[in-house]
Amino acid sequence: MTEAVSRPTLEAVAARAGVSRATVSRVVNGGDGVREPLAERVRQAVEELGYVPNQAARSLVTRRHDAVAVVIAEPEARVFADPFFARQLRGISKELTAHDNQLVLLLIEGRADHARVARYLAGGHVDGALVFSLHLDDPLPELIRDAGVPTVFGGRPGWGPDGAAAGPAGGASGEDPGVRYVDCDNRGGARTAVRHLVDLGRRRVAHIAGALDQTSAVDRLDGYRDVMTDVLGESDPRLVVESDFTPGGGERAMRELLDRCPDLDAVFAANDLTALGALRVLRASGRRVPEDVAVVGFDDMVPVTEQADPPLTTVRQDIEEMGRLMACMLLEDLPGARERDGAPAAWSTLPSAVILPTTLVRRASA
Amino acid sequence: MTEAVSRPTLEAVAARAGVSRATVSRVVNGGDGVREPLAERVRQAVEELGYVPNQAARSLVTRRHDAVAVVIAEPEARVFADPFFARQLRGISKELTAHDNQLVLLLIEGRADHARVARYLAGGHVDGALVFSLHLDDPLPELIRDAGVPTVFGGRPGWGPDGAAAGPAGGASGEDPGVRYVDCDNRGGARTAVRHLVDLGRRRVAHIAGALDQTSAVDRLDGYRDVMTDVLGESDPRLVVESDFTPGGGERAMRELLDRCPDLDAVFAANDLTALGALRVLRASGRRVPEDVAVVGFDDMVPVTEQADPPLTTVRQDIEEMGRLMACMLLEDLPGARERDGAPAAWSTLPSAVILPTTLVRRASA
DNA sequence: TTGAAAGCGCTAACAT
DNA sequence: ATGTTAGCGCTTTCAA
User: Fold this and answer.
1) What is the mean pLDDT of residues B155-181?
2) How many other C-beta atoms lie within 10 A of the C-beta of residue A199?
3) Of A1, A52, A123, Cβ closest to residue B333
């Protein structure tokens, strides 16, 4: 193995530049308070020696790591079917990179991993955490709170006092004000979708819900119910089936729905993948989409929606932006954020929760 | 912000247990050479104080980080469409976790990021690197070599002397023996796929190749050609189109092929996503699959292949296992690997390159 | 503005 | 088997 030979230290650079370690340190960390000719000599030496600071030594004294953990707690299935996480990661990565922070990925596979992750976070190896895919019974939030690590959640956490999402225009809901999260306007997006179906003249609108132990699924269901009761005075429970955000689940749910209500004329699926499954079953049942049954999805995973047959009308959320914002929020919470980025007078602090808007993307299915 | 108060140090534990720091250190790191009653007292103290070792301090002296970088160099498109990376990451994560190593994710977006990543790796922040998705002109390998970090590649790197993959049964090809990588038997898998089509009686077998700046695409093309020349004495170049591993690319390629050779009776696509696009165009053109045109994909991304219409016959590779093996190989290269895992006498070293077998999964499309 | 010196928390020789 | 001690490479008072 090519073993890295011992890297040059501050000491070495100092010697070469003929200054003290302290001076080199100053130059390396922004160079305030070092006169130009000297600073230049130091930079020279750094360059020539190929000096790179030893992060461990630095962390030891600063107690900062410039690293953030990303915790993904999705047990199996969905992570693979769904480009969702790849997208979020991309957004997060961009933002972290821009601020010279590293991304430590923590994937949770099973029960034992919760403890492992909690220990890691509590161990002070990272400056903060970005946590995804919380399920209602998830032990993680509490463990994290105990760990005392600054944290931002992806998606509204479910343990808050209320089960209601924010209104269409965004703004934090009535949660524990300390909890920071980024989410899209699930409820509002769902309303838009269902309203669209209603505007198309559909009245027997079914909903294939996501896994209801996740707030996104709950909020979308609520949005669906909002419009249905608004329009019809009630929401027929037979038109709702809980599923799991996967194509296979979508198929099963669609069969169930057709069984119960063969005369349904529209379906709002909790996400695009579910819609895909529904589409297949509808086709197999001899129904035409959208003529007989109109279908709307959620997410707008472009490769999925555009390749669907027919191309899927759906509610778009900007997933990458959500990731970026999560990272942004977290970085803001970290000590030293302000100084490090040359933030001017108007240092605008993000609110405790950010709800991104959604938009309806019309394609052929509805 | 809930700010973590200063954690207990070794010193504190030592004081509480009434022993020296060295003794505590020994117990914490495996506890060899500490008599039981004492060791127990130390464990008590650790427990009571909730002591967690400071990784920075430890790294500073051991020069190890118990962290591995995963570098994904896919510019855009594919990462999102394809659950491929999620799967590999899962495999890697499992193996690293099992050996108490952390996963630092480095996503490469553009040209500037190469330098950033190289600097990071050279900076000695991680013990090793797992690198994916190399393209032929990629500057990364060289930068990494210079960085002197132990590295394992995902997929055969393209800069070696030969352009040929290993034989069907696996084994390293004639590369620089120092380069370590894990790949599936792309060429053999392609052969199996095309042979299957030929066995079905097809003779006008087309191939939609992947991006030919990646060895996986080249190897699959080679496998295709192997069989075609074997069966027909030649491989008609008009039956091959280069594409990009995406559904959209698959569509375009399929149209092109139908244009050139309307009488083709089979298609071997470089991956499942490409096959998906091809399927759509074939259907749109009024051709039945598999009656008129048989289609075979590559990868076996189950959510894709099973949901395809008709379900896709494909070549399966065990992606998660590839990830696991990559991590395994890297860990092996790291100093101290042997001692840390209680490896017995027969410490079997993985070969420099591992080629995993593929299997044909028959579904409805061929 | 620059330098000297004191640690940060830990491991690993070396003593005992 | 256990304790003592000397750093690992860096930042950060404090003096000059």
Assistant:
1) 58
2) 9
3) A1
Q: Do A145 and B60 touch (CB under 8 A)?
A: no
Phi–psi pair at A200, nearest 5 degrees:
-75, 0
| CB-contacted nucleotides of strand D (7 Å) | 1-5, 7-13
The whole domain housing B295 covers 186-317
Give the closest of A4, A105, A120 to B93, CB-based: A105
Q: Are B133 and B89 in contact (CB under 8 A)?
A: no
In chain A, residues with a C-beta closer than 8 Å to the C-beta of B52 are 119, 122-124
CA separation (Å) from A202 to A205, A341, B168? Answer: 6, 52, 56
Whole-number pLDDT of residue B45: 93
Quick check: A5 contacting B, CB < 8 Å? Answer: yes
Task: Tell me which chain B residues have a C-beta less than 8 angstroms from the C-beta of A303.
Answer: 80-81, 246-248, 273
At B31-80, the pLDDT tens digits run 788 898 889 999 999 999 999 999 999 999 999 999 999 999 876 656 66
| C-alpha triplet A205, A276, B363: angle, nearest 5° | 140
Q: Give the HSE-up count for residue B168: Cα atoms under 13 Å, Cβ half-sphere.
A: 11
* Residues of chain A numbered 10-39 and touching chain B (CB < 8 Å): none
User: Is A287 in the same domain as A338?
Assistant: no
Cis bond leading into B290, ω under 30°? Answer: yes
Does an H or E element contain A116, and which?
A: helix A111-122
Pair (A231, A334) in one structural domain: no
Which structure tokens are listed for B6? 């200063």
**What is residue A5's three-state secondary structure?**
coil
pLDDT at position B212 is 96
If contacts are CB pairs under 8 Å, which of residues 201-240 in chain A contact chain B?
Answer: none
Q: Looking at residue A345, what is its pLDDT?
A: 37
CB-proximal positions of chain C, under 7 Å: 1-13
Written as one string, the DSSP assignment of A276-340 is HHHHHHHHHTT--TTTTSEEEEEE--HHHHHHSSSPPEEEE--HHHHHHHHHHHHHHHSTTHHHH
A242 lies in a domain? yes
CB contact under 8 A, B2 and A148: yes
Does residue B5 belong to any structural domain of this protein?
no
Q: Is the pLDDT of residue A171 over 70?
A: no
Average pLDDT for A79-88: 76
Looking at the complex, does the CB of residue B55 fall below 8 Å from at least one CB of chain A?
yes
Residues B28-61, buried b or exposed e (16+ Cβ, 10 A)? beebeebeeebbebbbebbeebebbbbbbebbbe
pLDDT band at A85 (very low <50, low <70, confident <90, very high): confident
Residue B116 pLDDT > 80, yes or no?
Answer: yes
CA-based max dimension of chain B: 86
Taking 80 as the threshold, does the pLDDT of residue B194 lie above it? yes
Please report which confidence band the pLDDT of residue A75 belongs to, taking 50, 70 and 90 as the band edges. Answer: low
* Residue A364 included in any domain: no
Q: Is the pTM of this model over 0.85?
A: yes
Gyration radius (Cα) of chain A, Å: 25
The predicted pLDDT at position B1 comes to 39
If one counts the domains in chain A, the total is 3
Q: Between residues 127 and 146 of chain A, which touch chain B (CB distance below 8 Å)?
A: 145
- In this structure, what CATH number is given to the domain that contains residue A275? 3.40.50.2300
Give the whole-number percent of chain B exceeding pLDDT 90. Answer: 67
- pLDDT at residue B173 in the model: 43
